[in-house]
Amino acid sequence: MAKQDKTSRQAVIDEIRNSQKAAERRRGGMIVGVAVVLGLLIIGAAAWKPITDSISAREFKEKELSTIGAKADVCQDVTTKPAEGMQDHVAQGTEIPYADAPPAFGTHYDSWEPMERKFYGPDDRPELGYLVHNQEHGYTLLWYNEKVADDAAQMKELRGTAARFDGDDMRNKFKVVPWTAEDGDPFPEGQNIALTHWSAGGTGESGTAKQVGAWQYCSEFSGEALEDFMTEYPYMDSPEPLGG
């Protein structure tokens, strides 16, 4: 009888152990399954943005620049003032106070941002000293403030417009960059976009006597205004158009 009781107890123990192992296998399978699903979601999310960006870029490349965004009348008249700072280089990382919001000229770093990159977000924009150097080399910069950064429709237009300037052709000296409260004063009241250019005072001009900074502020993005601005201030109209 004792032997039978011992056998029965062992059977119960074995059954409990087997049940525990089965439960552990199920939990393990569930964990693996969840991990696989999460992994696929992460991969899918990472792949989705480049795909949608590519589709968006093609969409905007097929449009006339002047048809993207608002009409030019959302922008103020272009203003200029005498420029200074040509070849006034300081070491990278030096703090440079700029009086204008945003700057179109001035002291700048001894290096600049590569032409390949056209669009920058609030978290990855280079320091102003690099961008001012870009302007010395003929770049037109389109600055957007925090209100535009929170506007998905306008950000799509800005990304699509930046994609139109892909490539290292000198005519593609253009960048879209953010302007934040940490950078300096806000744009004029009601204005959320700024176009800037460091002009030599006319294509073919040399020296510093005629150099000006040019600004145009807009309440929202206008491809028509951008096209007019870059026609008025081409890359060749800059202190050092062949650099960068």
SSE layout and pairing:
Layout: H1 2-61, E1 79-82, E2 89-90, E3 108-109, H2 128-136, E4 140-144, H3 146-149, H4 152-163, E5 174-178, E6 193-199, E7 212-218, H5 223-232
Parallel strand pairs: 2-3, 4-5
Antiparallel strand pairs: 1-7, 4-6, 6-7
Helix pairs in contact: 1-4
Keywords: Membrane, Transmembrane, Transmembrane helix
Protein name: DUF3105 domain-containing protein
Transmembrane segments: 28-48
Primary descriptors:
single chain, 244 residues, alpha/beta, 2 domains, five-stranded mixed beta sheet, elongated
Word description of this protein:
With 244 residues, the chain is an alpha/beta fold. It folds into two domains: 1-62; 67-232, no CATH class. It contains five helices and seven strands, in the order αβββαβααβββα. It has helices spanning 2-61, 128-136, 146-149, 152-163, 223-232, and strands at residues 79-82, 89-90, 108-109, 140-144, 174-178, 193-199, 212-218. It has a five-stranded mixed beta sheet. A two-stranded parallel sheet has the order 2-3. The longest helix has 60 residues, at 2-61. The protein starts with a helix and ends in a 12-residue tail after the last helix. The relative contact order is 0.17. The model has no long low-confidence stretch (mean pLDDT 88).
